[in-house]
Amino acid sequence: MASSNFGRAALNSPPIFTGSNYTSWKKRMKKFLWTIDDELWLVVQNGPIQMDVENQPQWTAVQKKNAQLNQRVCMSCKL
Fold first, then answer.
1. Residue 53 lies in a domain
2. pLDDT, tens digit, 9 for 90 and up, residues 15-38
3. What is the pTM for the complete model shown?
């Protein structure tokens, strides 16, 4: 089996981009995010979902989920 620059990360850790083989890393990152939530990749592609933070106490269930998606993407990128 061919060696990879990615190494073996834990299943709950995102793949690490080493500066080469972007296409392979992108596929692995997409799969990683989809295992957390199938809508996370859409947030990565389209940018953060715009939220009205001033009205947070009145957010609907959909708005709360959108806020959580934004937070999850940020946390995944920090790992």
1. yes
2. 888 999 999 999 998 898 888 888
3. 0.60
